Amino acid sequence: MRDVTISDIERLRSEAAGTAAVFEMDEDTFRAFYDRTARPLWVYLARLTGSGDLADDLLQESYYRFLRADARHEGEVHRRHSLFRIATNLARDGRRRGIRAPLVPLPGTGDQGEPAAPGDAAADADRRTDLARAMAGLKPREREMLWLAYAQGFTHADIAGTLGVKAASVRLLLFRARRKLAGLLNRRGSEKVAR
Amino acid sequence: MRLTRGVADVDCGREEEILDVVATGRWPARCDADLAAHLEHCQPCQDLVAVVTALTGEHESAWAEARVPSSTMVWWRAQVKAREEAARSAAFPIAFAQGVAAACGVWIAVSLLRMAPGPVSLGWSSAIAYLSAVLPDISAALSSIPGGTAFAALLAGSLVLAPIALLLVVRVVLREE
Asked: Residue B31 and which of A79, A91, A126, B167 are 20 to 30 A apart at CA?
């Protein structure tokens, strides 16, 4: 995605100011909400799809659908659930339509990786590759759930609201997914030791 | 780990404590001895530590490399897209009506040609000559029935407009594609 220059922003502002309201949400509210949610959402989408470029596209589409839905939200939490639910569904739709990046973006060869450096950076790249491979062994819902719970710090109620599962089921589903991922990580560790 | 009616009791009650230790960076060096001892023989807690440390580390790396467009850009693109969709939605009934008109026109033309066996098998010049001979008879027949002239005008108009309408529909469909 290309960088936005100051002149671009000025032009967009003047164009937007000259047009009638299209969405229920006003621009200031949107901007505040976007600033709070865009980065976590991008990270979530990048990890679900395994591609920064796909995450860029899905981010834009997620906000567009969120705005177009013009839904009444009870508060910030509810609004965030809606946004993440839309993003999750878009990522799932993409998978169903076969739009997918390799789920294991190898550091240094992926669309967002930098060349692996010696020392700590190489170890870090190795760790990320191991995790990506282990995550690829999970079902999509397990990946979504684990990421939301332990990377983004969502509560069980947040996860239920976002993924559309019963709140009472989240604990058990999370437990199973956690056990599975830990098993995959341990297996990869054991294979390395054996080599 | 207890099992109750086939459903696993999924944590040992120290999940929050472990999450807190990892989140505050106290794992493993500054972890309580009691918690460390517990972890040695609690498999769900070991799984939890393995998963949480891996995912939080990954989250930090991903956060650093995240590149999000400005809110102005996203807002503007959303507005443009909404307007385009609205325009497409408004144009759809018109395109649909044009499509129906075009289909009717083609159907009528084909029916007329099938009713008149001569011109189909003839060359263009012979066909025009044939139609010139037949048209006065048709117009005489139409004018003898009530509303026949209006029907003839409508029919002729449809035949002329049908290809144009068809062209417009094709253009709209291609643009949507």
From this structure: A126
Give the relative orientation of helices B33-41 and B43-65 as an angle to the nearest 10 degrees.
Answer: 110
- Which chain B residues touch A8 with a CB distance below 8 Å? 73
For residue A3, the chain B residue with the least C-alpha distance is: B69
Per-residue pLDDT reduced to its tens digit, A107-149: 443 444 444 445 677 777 888 888 888 988 899 999 999 999 9
A3 SS3 class: coil
Please check whether residue A133 is in contact with residue A188, taking contact to mean a CB–CB distance below 8 angstroms.
yes
Residue bearing tokens 């959303």: B78
Query: How many percent of chain B have pLDDT more than 70?
Result: 85
- This complex has an ipTM of 0.76
CB B116 within 8 A of CB B134: yes
Decide if A101 contacts A51 (C-beta within 8 A).
Answer: yes
| Yes or no, beta carbons of B55 and A56 under 8 Å apart | no
pTM, two decimal places: 0.67
Q: How far apart are CA A168 and CA A148, in angstroms?
A: 16
Candidates A2, A172, A175, A187, partner chain B, best to mutate (most B CBs within 10 A): A175
